[in-house]
Amino acid sequence: MRVLYHLPLSPFSRKVRLVLAERRLPFELKVERVWERRPEYLAMHAAGTVPVLVEDNGLVIPDSGVICEYLEEAYPDTALLGRTLGESVEIRRLVAWFDGKFASEVTRNLIGEKIMKRLFGRSQPDVGLIRAGYANLRSHLEYIGWLAEQRRWLAGNELSLADFAAAGHLSALDFTGEVDWSISAPARDWYSRMKSRPSFRPLLTDRVAGVDPPAHYPDLDF
After folding, report:
1. Total-model pTM
2. What residues does each domain of the chain span?
């Protein structure tokens, strides 16, 4: 069986988990504590980051972006990158937005400072970065809400990789209780639809040592 090396609170790992489940591709999860710099893992992926997907035939695919592009080509029955050039451009634009801009302005400032520094045994969280993360999260939620009001899904009429990229980040933040869903009702409604998908259910059962999710985390109606 294919194996996905991941961390439960990695939004990039969560994105790939969602995409694999949406495509109904069976896989085994293995937690990779990247801070341990395990030689066997570094030999497989020199960057030492997660996620990494290993196919049944031994093919190693690193990086969430590369994995998702690979899955689109290898298993084309479920199209998540659009069917026209215009759709593909908009989907990729939003994936880049969430995995680049959102990740640097929100996820790293909140999960990175509050959770990952503790796991890595590094310095104390930077309060200024955490404050900036909350401020940035508000503007991003408003943008997600605007997209959700204009379209059926974030990138258009069809569910796409853009939705899973956004859900990867927001589900990790929601697990740690960082999201004030009252900021944008349309964003909350979109996220509720994402949580209701069968592919999302395994994420709702995640547990992380030392981090207790809020009571609403597994609820579809929150």
Report:
1. 0.96
2. 85-197
Q: Of the candidates 10, 2, 47, 17, which has an alpha carbon nearest to the alpha carbon of residue 194?
A: 17
Strand partners for 62 = 52
Give the single-character DSSP code of 34: G
- Which residue has 């495509």 as its token pair? 23
- Quick one: pLDDT at residue 34? 93
Helix and strand numbers, DSSP H then E, in the chain: 9, 4
- Number of other CB atoms surrounding residue 167 within 10 Å: 26
Residue 30 neighbours by CB under 8 Å, 6+ apart: 3, 4, 5, 6
Q: What is the per-residue pLDDT across 57-79, written as a single tens digit (0 to 9) for each?
A: 999 999 999 999 999 999 999 99
CATH tag, 85-197? 1.20.1050.10
160/91 Cα distance (integer angstroms): 7
Q: What local confidence, expressed as pLDDT, does residue 4 receive?
A: 98
Alpha-helical runs (H) found in the chain: 11-22, 39-44, 64-74, 85-96, 117-120, 127-150, 161-175, 185-195, 201-204
Distance CA 62, CA 51 (A): 6
Tokens 């981090």 belong to: 211
Q: What is the pLDDT of residues 157-177, one digit of tens each?
A: 999 999 999 999 999 999 999
pLDDT confidence of residue 181: 97
- The contacts of residue 76 (CB under 8 Å, 6+ apart) are none
Q: Tokens 């933040």 belong to which residue?
A: 173
Looking at residue 209, its pLDDT comes to 86
